[in-house]
Design brief:
- Residues 1-20, 477-502 are annotated as: Disordered.
- Pfam families: GerA.
- This is Spore gernimation protein GerA.
- The chain is α+β, with helices and mostly antiparallel strands.
- 44% of the residues lie in helices and 12% in strands.
- It folds into 4 domains: 19-123, no CATH class; 152-266, no CATH class; 278-449, no CATH class; 459-495, no CATH class.
- It has helices at 13-20, 24-32, 59-70, 78-84, 96-103, 152-160, 194-205, 215-222, 239-248, 282-312, 319-328, 336-356, 359-379, 385-398, 404-424, 426-442, 491-495, and strands at 37-43, 47-53, 91-93, 107-111, 119-123, 168-175, 181-188, 234-236, 251-255, 261-264, 444-445, 448-449.
- A hairpin with a 2-residue loop joins strand 11 and strand 12 (448-449).
- Helix 10 (282-312) packs parallel to helix 15 (404-424), helix 12 packs across helix 14 (385-398) and helix 12 (336-356) packs antiparallel against helix 15.
- It is elongated, with a radius of gyration of 30 Å.
């Protein structure tokens, strides 16, 4: 499906005629067809009419902040009403399209007479939001414990209070023919590269779809390669992470109604970096990051290498281990590939069942189901205990990926590696790895290389890639982002330490 507008198509003649010929009275009839649309006549001293959606407008506002100022005084026209209301953003208009948009967003419509086409639009949006809670998918032991909610204004507040500078810029657009979702493109003017900003704004503006209910829709529609299993934008629920990447020169995209933000341009190494790494000493953070990378490699390659070795390369197995493997597979009726696929699919079924069930039930299913099925499979002679251990460790290692989207990609990659190992052994694993590497070399994020700083090589950016060097050594922003302001700090002053006696 192509979500981008290659050319701006004109509406069909019949649709254009219907929209252009819609009168104010016809609009009011359409609105009144909804049970939650209310029109009330006020006639104490002066007569006027107010209309609004009861599900969008706070009723307390209508009586406390609106009617109390205009009910007991003589009013001649709409200008008198506007003059007596102590409110901002009141619009006087007879534009049917503008009236339709504002009323369906939560504005109150005021008329002097029911037949009048000119009216006042008074903002009174009633929003129901959940309280700010702790992050669920990016939980950290140390550091802030705030996560985004479904309100765009609240989320912008969480970021802006961390970046209280006038250069903090928000560009807002409406996306979706039906939902008209507010989408914010966020960056720091003077740091973010203008080309990256313009690319993000253009791609969001070019989205052509009827409804946008979450930022994940936007992620799929503006990615450089929509057919790639690798995520090209980081999806995060942490406002501190968004503030940090904005300071680096990146861009964030948020949608109203979504508790997640998209950040980019990004690189593949960032998907294996937990934000908690920056709250720990650089030695600990680097060690944990390397362990995480090794866990990912083990998760992808362990089962395919087991299949390749047992199918083609018995000579690679040490003598002491060969006896154990032969004993474990003595009564197994399936070849290694079928055995591995059965176990991998069982693990995925348990994982999916645990994710879709309520939390307490899901945890029980994952633990009890894994133990019961694994033990029963070994005792029934359907799989070897060695492969069961390998697949279980591989599933456990896949959970070390801190970004959920990349974790799903890692789970998917095991299957093409397994099939390659079955047909060509270790050579098949190498060929499959070569195909994936060539795909990564071509992949970009908002037009920037996806595997930077490894290729093209940027030695300065390696200070925060596979390992994390001390903050004092990261005096420049990432070169791959081409930021307008490349300096983060004065390195000499950052490394100097003065005692109070000095």
């Amino acid at each position: 499906m192509n979500f981008f507008k290659k050319k701006k198509k004109q509406p069909e003649p019949e649709q254009t005629q219907n929209r252009g010929s819609l009168t104010f009275q016809e609009l009011m009839q359409k609105l009144s067809a909804s049970a939650d649309f209310s029109t009330v006549k006020q006639s104490s001293v002066s007569t006027f009419y107010i209309s609004y959606f009861k599900t969008l407008v706070n009723p307390e506002f209508v009586h406390r902040d609106l009617l109390r100022y205009i009910t007991d005084i003589p009013l001649q026209d709409l200008d008198d009403i506007q003059k007596h209301l102590p409110l901002d953003d009141i619009t006087k208009t007879n534009d049917v399209h503008d009236i339709s948009n504002k009323v369906t967003e939560g504005y109150i419509l005021i008329q002097m007479n029911k037949e009048d086409t000119e009216c006042l639009l008074v903002p009174s949006l009633s929003t129901e939001n959940r309280q700010i809670s702790i992050p669920e998918t990016e939980f950290s032991v140390v550091g802030p414990k705030e996560a985004f909610v479904e309100s765009l204004d609240t989320n912008l507040n969480l970021i802006r209070k961390r970046l209280p500078i006038p250069e903090f810029t928000v560009k807002e657009v409406r996306v979706g023919k039906l939902t008209k979702t507010r989408v914010a493109i966020i960056y720091i003017d003077g740091i973010a590269d203008s080309e990256n900003v313009n690319t993000a704004i253009q791609r969001v503006n070019d989205i052509e779809y009827d409804h946008i209910v979450d930022s994940s829709y936007i992620n799929q529609m503006i990615s450089d390669n929509g057919n790639s299993p690798f995520p090209q934008l980081i999806d995060t629920e942490r406002p501190d992470r968004v503030a940090s990447v904005l300071a680096e020169g990146k861009i964030a995209i948020m949608a109203d109604g979504s508790p997640h933000a998209l950040t980019g341009p990004t690189t593949i190494v960032e998907f294996f970096s937990a934000f908690e790494d920056y709250f720990l000493n650089w030695v600990l953070a680097s060690t944990i990051r390397l362990i995480r990378l090794m866990g990912v490699m083990f998760s992808v390659l362990s089962s395919p290498l087991y299949v390749a070795v047992l199918t083609f390369h018995y000579e690679m197995i040490p003598e002491n281990l060969l006896a154990t493997l032969v004993a474990s597979r003595n009564d197994i009726p399936f070849p290694p590939i079928l055995e591995a696929i059965i176990l991998e699919l069982s693990i995925e079924l348990l994982r999916e069942a645990g994710a879709r069930l309520p939390t307490k039930v899901g945890q029980t299913i994952g633990i009890v189901g894994g133990i019961v099925i694994g033990t029963a499979a070994v005792q029934a002679g359907l799989t070897s205990n060695v492969l069961l251990i390998i697949v279980s460790l591989a599933a456990l290692a896949s959970f070390t990926t801190p970004v959920y989207q990349m974790s799903n990609t890692i789970r998917l990659l095991r299957f093409p590696f397994l099939l390659s190992a079955q047909f060509l052994g270790v050579l098949g694993v190498v060929i499959c790895f070569a195909f994936i590497l060539s795909h990564l070399l071509k992949l970009t994020s908002l037009g920037r290389p996806y595997i930077a700083p490894l290729y093209p090589l940027r030695t300065n950016d390696l200070k925060d890639a596979l390992i994390r060097m001390p903050f004092s050594s990261q005096n420049n922003r990432p070169i791959s982002l081409r930021t307008s302001d490349k300096k983060r700090m004065n390195k000499k002053r950052a490394t100097e330490k003065h005692d109070i006696e000095d």
